[in-house]
From TrEMBL:
It is found in: Cytoplasm. Belongs to the ferrochelatase family. The gene is hemH. This is Ferrochelatase. InterPro entries: Ferrochelatase (IPR001015), Ferrochelatase_C (IPR033644), Ferrochelatase_N (IPR033659). Pathway: Porphyrin-containing compound metabolism; protoheme biosynthesis; protoheme from protoporphyrin-IX: step 1/1. Keywords: Cytoplasm, Heme biosynthesis, Iron, Lyase, Metal-binding, Porphyrin biosynthesis. The lineage of its organism: Bacteria, Pseudomonadati, Bacteroidota, Cytophagia, Cytophagales. Signal peptide: none annotated. It comes from Chryseosolibacter indicus. Catalyzes the ferrous insertion into protoporphyrin IX. SUPFAM superfamilies: Chelatase.
Amino acid sequence: MKDKIGVLLINLGTPDSPSVGHVRSYLSQFLNDPRVIDIPWLLRKLLVNVVIVPFRASKSAKVYKKLWTADGSPLLYYSERAKELLQQQLGSQYDVYLAMRYKNPSIPDVLETMRKKNYSKIIVLPMFPQYASASTGSALEEVMRVVQKWWVIPELRLISQYYDHADYINGFVERGKQHRIDDYDHVLFSYHGLPQRQLDKVYNDGPCDGHNCEHEVTEENKFCYKAACYATTRLIAERLGIPSSKYTVCFQSRLDEGWVKPYSDEVIKECGKKGMKKLLVFSPAFTADCLETIIEIGEEYQELFHEHGGEKVQLVESLNDHPSWIQCMKSLVLQN
């Protein structure tokens, strides 16, 4: 009889409901993470707990109410669907669990359930294809924080990134084929933004700029989020036959001007000013549709584009429960 293996999927997280109280609690946990806002402790506490959360919770709650469906949070719904489908694909030798880095189901609670199962091996798979300290790094750190306190620590396999996995790329290619790409004036590949300083911390020999991250992946930049995003884009664009002149890589959701450029909202404005009427937007950093895709791209960028002369911003659906995404996760588990 073979030992069972535990598989832990981790996504970013979502408020328990769109109420102001639940959104406030979610934002507080999320933004107080030192890997998310990587500034000195006291400054972060003041910025998050005195400035950002008190003034942003009510506004964010209104946005989450627009996002919420009869099934609740789309991110949680599709993450649970992916977990169920992966369990079906892996079979009885594996037990698949889902945790959220922030809020519920929490990493400590889910890991406690797994600890009691006495698995000989646990495979941890964050649902973030491109490594970033603020996403994958934070999730893996939290797992290690919990597991290091166990008396018995099983074999652990931690998966850091897989942006170039053939099945992951194929999933977005198949999503793209649902649209007539030639009907669009331009294609955007919009990734979640990060402070530039977080990219710089990847390197021992200076800042990110100068490592040619827009054009190649090397030993030096292989864990640079920017390099991974550009590489992801090249792989998807090549499969879909989109020439480099017809697409732009950009970064959304910035908090200030010190984030990695170009900014998605500024690119949207420029496209409108240039007379473009239809844009197709991929967001390959997200494997489940969420506030950043459905609302930020699908609604806010649509309004912004229209204000600057454009007509239609078409969001390409995320992987969600696409068979290629399930196959990607299955392959990653079996490889580990």
